[in-house]
Amino acid sequence: DAKTTQPTSMDCAEGRAANLPCNHSTISGNEYVYWYRQIHSQGPQYIIHGLKNNETNEMASLIITEDRKSSTLILPHATLRDTAVYYCIVAQGNAGKSTFGDGTTLTVKP
Amino acid sequence: DAGITQSPRHKVTETGTPVTLRCHQTENHRYMYWYRQDPGHGLRLIHYSYGVKDTDKGEVSDGYSVSRSKTEDFLLTLESATSSQTSVYFCAILLRLESEAFFGQGTRLTVV
Question: Most exposed: A55, A64, A91, A103, by fewest CB within 10 Å?
């Protein structure tokens, strides 16, 4: 599976959009991009995933570049409860067999 | 939570003793996984299973063994616990290939 690169940390003001980038320049054509987050020491929570097209659900939007070498997770109106570590992973049809990097620590500030 | 239960949630054990962690699911999903997470780092895959008696190694499998004799249970065993195995252990299931993974709440293991 391809590796990903994420910034170590980001801040966001409460109520503003949080845009979390992820680089996956070695992604192959059949690998999906998945986003999870982990609040404190709880188990990771699934957010969204996609293959080629942009995706949106009740939690977030996922924007994947046309060449698929990078993506952005967008939390449209960040709240304090969105403070967490966000993980971007790529996986070929088996998201459980994944490598989780160190992720991005997002801090939402009042 | 996709019906995942990990037990125990916390355990302290002595170096050299065997320890078994249990992951139980209620929905007969085929794919199950064990991860460990050390402070300040992401999750690393220990072992995984594609079904009853069908298991394989992940990237950090040394010192660990697993068993899956029933669909609903995936057991992780530390044959002789070491201090380096102090960690938080997460179990995960996959509903199907290409779907997302669901994680349990974790087991915090301390080896003294």
Answer: A55
Are the C-beta atoms of residues B93 and B29 closer than 8 Å to each other? yes
Do the bridges between strand A61-64 and strand A70-75 make them parallel or antiparallel, or are there none, so unpaired?
antiparallel
Q: In whole angstroms, give the CA distance from residue B92 to residue B104.
A: 6
Chain A closest CA to B47's CA: distance in Å? 9
Tell me the two tokens of residue A14: 């409460």
| Per-residue tens of pLDDT for chain B, all 112 residues | 568 999 999 999 999 999 999 999 998 899 999 999 998 888 999 999 999 999 999 999 999 999 999 999 999 999 999 999 999 999 999 887 778 889 999 999 999 9
| Nearest CA-CA partner of B8 in B88, B81, B70 | B88
Q: Which two tokens stand for residue B110?
A: 């301390």
Whether residues A99 and B40 touch (CB distance < 8 A) is answered with: no
Closest CA to A87 of A37, A32, A24, A33: A37
Quick check: A93 and B42 CB within 8 A? no
From residue B8, alpha-carbon distances to A21, A38, A44, B14, B23 in Å are 36, 20, 18, 16, 9
Rounded to whole angstroms, the Cα distance separating B110 from B107 reads 10
CB contact under 8 A, A100 and B58: no
- Asked if residue A108 lies in contact with residue A18, where contact means CB atoms within 8 angstroms, the answer is yes
Are B2 and B91 contacting, i.e. CB atoms less than 8 angstroms apart?
no
Q: Is A72:A10 a contact under the CB 8 Å cutoff?
A: no
Q: Which residue of B has its CA nearest to A35?
A: B100
